[in-house]
Known about the structure:
5 domains; Alpha-Beta Plaits; alpha+beta; Ubiquitin-like (UB roll); five-stranded antiparallel β-sheet
Amino acid sequence: MFSLKLTRWLIGFARFSVRGGSPERFYTSCARKGIYLWDISAGKTTSVCVAARSYRALRPLARRAGCRLKVLEKRGLPFLLYRTRGHMGLWAGGAVFLAIVFVLSLRVWCVQITGECPYPTAEVENALAAEGLSRGVWKSSVDPRILASRMMLKFPDIRWMSINMHGCEAEIAVRKKIQKPEIADFSGFCNIKASATGQVLSMKVYAGTPVVQKGDAVVKDQLLVNAVVEDQLGGNTLVHASAEIIAETSRDLTVRVNLKQPKTIPTGKTVFRRNLNLFGARIPLSLFGKPAGSWNISRSESSVSLFGTVLPLSVYEEKWEETRVAETVLTKQQALTAAKQEADRQIKELLGSGKVISEKSEEKWESSALVKTIHLTCEENIAQESAIFIKTG
Length: 393
């Protein structure tokens, strides 16, 4: 139905009225002549539609039937073009517009990165621009296969990349590399020694000869598993000892928090700087440069879309907030919170996969600082490899 209406509009059509005489004879004559009529309305004064090029052929048929024809309206492209025949500027502007659209269709309008990208999007876009793919470049100048290979060499964590051109949009499909599990290095020989003082709670010896048992107290650097293994025949073999030895240990941490600390606070002054990005070229919309002083900067970029298609046009905005540095004095609660956060960070760094069984802390308030001492009882793996160097020759 839509295609039929579009065809009629392109060839042009007229709506006319039929008055007096014998309309039935008129319609019969039109059918015999092969003239197609549509939208015929009944009544004393009927209205009919006909193709514009067939209207002149209706006059003789109407006279024979004693009818009078009167054009009510004209619609379609031919009549629209006829009304603009005296305005050559419209034709010239239309031709220039079509030429501009054609030239722009040969360029890349936007670059979209999809998939699992292990790197920041801005970093990948900058690398693509350095290799020749950015907004505004000719599509014919981009070789997707070569460009994808170069990008994968630059970013080793990318397992697979495909560059697809969809019209004026360059889609960068990315898959991240699956990291291989670390393989333990069992080359060479080593003993297992204690990394801390404590009491052994459990032992899992994978290679070597244990020299301590569950429940034994050990000190730091004490031998736990010997690399020498005796076989059934009494011979000795040197191996790479491996074990997991969980022990209860005691740890002491000291955290110091200064009560007077510098703090950056906003002054309330805000400045906005905007640019219009067109095909990668920045057109300044703000007439002032970078302000002097201490500022916090936040950036944002808004792309312009039309009917779901991203256009090569975006607005880049920078928000500058002026700040100053002032000295603040922490309250008691703030100092305790800061000390706890620092202590948790140190405990995580010290124990790794170990856990804290019990914790006891002591607080000492000085004139300018809080000193917090923490006594920990922990469960951790104290097995530490100690390499054995064999001198040959």
